[in-house]
Amino acid sequence: MRKNLSLAIVFVLILSLLVGCAPSSTPSGGDKTEPTKAPDSSTPTKAASTEEAEIVDGRFTKTRKITVEVYDRGNEGGSKPEDNFYTNFIKEGMLRDHNVEVTFVPVPRWTEVDHLNNMLAAGEAPDICVTYDYPTIQTYANMGGVIDLAPLLEQYKPMLQDLWNLLGDENIYWNRDPVKGTVWAIEAIRAQVPRINTFVREDWLKKLNISEPTSLEEFENMLYAFKNNASVLLGNDADKMIPFSISFDVGWRANNLLISFVPDNITDEEMFIYGFDSRQLEWPGVKEAVRKINEWYNNGLIWKDFGLYKEGDTTEDNLIKAGYVGSFIHNWDYPYRDGENGIHGTMQRMIGPEAAYIAVDPFKNDAGKYKKLLYQRNDRKVFFPSTNKEPLASLLYLNWISKFENRKFLQIGEEGVTHEVMPDGAIKIIAATGDKIMNSVNNIDYTITINGLDLGDPSLTAKSVALGYAGVDARFIEKAYLVANNDGFTVKNFNVGEIKAEEGMGQVLKEKRDALFVNAVICKPEEFDAVWDRYYNDYLDSGGRAIQEERKAKFEQFYK
Amino acid sequence: MVKTKKSKIGDMIVAFLCFIVILLCLLPMINVLSRSVSSSDALVRNEVLLWPKGFNIDAYKMILGDPKYTWSLVWTAIITVIGTCLSMFMTTICAYPLIYDNLKGKRFINALILFTMYFNAGTIPLYLLLKDLSLLNRPAVLVIPYCLSVFNMIIMRSFFFGIPDSLRESAEIDGAGPIRILVSIYLPLSTPVIATLSLFYAVGRWNGFSDALMFMSNKREYWPIQLLLYNILNNMTSIEVATQEGVTKPAMSENVKAATVMFATVPILLVYPWLQKYFITGVHLGSIKG
Questions:
Q1: Exposed/middle/buried for A215, CB within 10 Å: 0-12, 13-18, 19+?
Q2: Does B165 lie in the same domain as B85?
């Protein structure tokens, strides 16, 4: 009896296991049936003639319906991202110009990838999806869950001129598979590419009568001067002096210094092969740059506790705001952000109107150039899941949103409400409340094909960008913008298709890289080489080497 | 009873250890409380540890003046109360039959229930299930899916086991049915476990945000307070997003941040002293003669 019972239990457990598995395999299985029916590329071509017949002067004869993903930031005082002044502007425009009814689907910004995964698996993702995470798209594309845009783009190109004018072939075909020619997603464009700047306290330079450093040596001397004159600069708080501040993310927070140690003759090929890490860890010369930081650390020029505070912690920001920090490297406009609660705003309030950081350009490479890496000109990735039954209407949406007048309105809003026009024509964004509030800077959540202000005229755009920082003298921004772009370069985009070794390695290698940098900075100078080699080999053994090798092989396959 | 010197020293050591643990729990709370009523300049200078500096309650004024916070707090309270009541009901009616020896297939049912404690299907299948049940983006999704915790049910069942069978048998002799026995004998004797489990459920509901994050994404008006805070804090501190997008949104001052944390924590803390009086075990001792 007992034996029978336990047998029955085992049987039922196995059964329930199988039943339990069934629904989880449906999404991929369900999607898998669709690519045989599609990859949707054949369907639109067949349907093309009928489709085109239904479209007169860019308008569908029958109303089409599409859904569009929009990030939900849950921001303080924000409006509903799926229903507000700007969504109405888009909805009305799309209905007027193309007879397409648009519905927005909010997706939480901070967990967009998880949400997108859920919705794609459930087969209810919006017709137009947006994400920063290309691997997610690739995963679903491999399962047949994403529409190949290549044939559609080719076929409808004449109707998509605004999209082409904005993105160009480069961004549209950024992700084209070098073998199969598939395009799973197009890349939005990043209008502002400055990336990282070096900042020093302008008032300290004046107090100590030092001119802005223009070389590593001068920069170093400046740091020692800050340290040796702590009591002059900070009075009673002299013991809190931090000549140079970094965080656990050394690769980012010393990036301009790292790049200046990279030989000028580094080739595009090398940059690509050793270019997996977003902080350029694998590039030649970086080790020597970190040795320099290690020297500073051991000579007491760097905040001792930097490695203890992880991402999102505000301790370091507060040290900067309180005025204890002489210099640091960060995002090109970092100290000027966030209005009165930001670094500049807080220092002006707590220390005085003279307290300010200014961008400087001290790090020259071996060819005497102030090289610094810029952002690549791509941004979010836009794709259509295979549940999208209106690919043409969706493409027309992307075209509409890329049209200059439309995106300009979305970026700057109404005059007198969200912006004012300066005498020289520059646009100054002002904070709005209520329905016309912009939930994201320049409404990037709606202008899904462009990130960053673009007013058509570059100098006007630059002037307007400089006005975009509440309470900050425009001269600081202009200088920062100039310096950040000075001798700037980007890594060339080599399209070699999917690199299998990179799959799922991002987080692991990121942590290894940060551990490497932090430990190499805080070790004793005589142990530096041993520490670096140990951690670097660990990084390579954990997947870094496989990535390099695959990148090398792919590069040779397609570009040699 | 006279205590020996040895046991007195033992008591003191225990008391001392308890004191340390209490301190470890309390100090961070005091720190956040002090931060929430300090001036933001003092916070930036890192001058506030346990005593507020530049005392002001502007941060609280700001939060209480924002209907988004207050509604979210009320809504969270509503789902906490409903969720806890429902969970206790489900837990009780699940645990109670399992103490009867003459329940047919008891071992089998137990095995099935236990199975769900160790294995689950994962987020995406759950998402699909809730979608097919039309629960997505409906208030009920915050209450129903997690209304029974197997672990808590087992605690309850074990407690029921601890109640002597003879009490039940005597009630049966007096003609009481199972439901009557549950209501009149078992529940009154189980206040400690009911209080404990209610607290588990209530705290879990109050602090829960991942279910709302996944299943309630489109309806902001039904966001519980923790999800609201999660979004607000992320909005300001996510470096990942800042590097991706190259921009950030205005920061919130430090004291407001601390105040929102207090705001979300204090209400659930108030539940503890109220439940305290039920944490008295041994109620049924002496109800039968040994």
A1: middle
A2: yes
